[in-house]
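User: Sequence recovery, please. Input:
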């Protein structure tokens, strides 16, 4: 792949209900929701371009947390390469574009995004947030691990109980034959 021509961000804001993700309405396409992104200017880093685009399109200040994958797509028939970053909400600023924005929970954001590439990007970003948020929301991953452990334990218990019933039935049958 060549150098990134565009940069964008998956911006999250931590709330009591869990993370919320920033989506902006696509330019000229009412009702189509995307991540903020735009051109990398000459002499600008991809990170700086992503921060600038988030501020211009959404009126949001954001701090980079981690670089995500680079996405290739076509725009007006030409290939573009978008470097995406996971960014944490850091406050408001004045947007230079008039776009509607939405802060959505993970499932709502997945439903709102229309491109599979963007949904995969969001899933990847969401999996990084507990560690990226310095443990503030480590309960999410701890809860997931505990749920998996509980499920495994219950499955093991069910298997054990099925096995002990079989053993009891088998021993009754043997006792019946011995009489």
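Assistant: Recovered sequence (179 residues):
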């Amino acid at each position: 792949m060549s150098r990134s021509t565009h940069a964008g961000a998956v911006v999250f804001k931590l709330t009591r209900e869990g993370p919320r993700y920033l989506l902006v309405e696509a330019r000229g396409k009412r009702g189509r929701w995307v991540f903020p992104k735009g051109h990398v200017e000459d002499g600008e880093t991809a990170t700086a371009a992503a921060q600038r685009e988030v501020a211009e399109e959404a009126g949001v200040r954001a701090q980079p947390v981690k670089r995500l994958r680079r996405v290739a797509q076509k725009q007006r028939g030409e290939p573009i390469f978008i470097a995406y970053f996971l960014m944490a909400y850091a406050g408001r600023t004045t947007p230079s574009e008039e776009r509607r924005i939405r802060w959505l929970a993970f499932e709502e954001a997945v439903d709102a995004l229309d491109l599979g590439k963007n949904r995969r990007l969001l899933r990847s970003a969401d999996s990084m947030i507990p560690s990226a948020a310095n443990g503030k929301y480590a309960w999410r991953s701890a809860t997931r691990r505990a749920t998996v452990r509980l499920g495994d334990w219950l499955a093991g218990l069910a298997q054990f109980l099925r096995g002990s019933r079989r053993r009891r039935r088998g021993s009754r049958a043997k006792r019946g034959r011995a009489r």
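Residues 137-179 form one domain.
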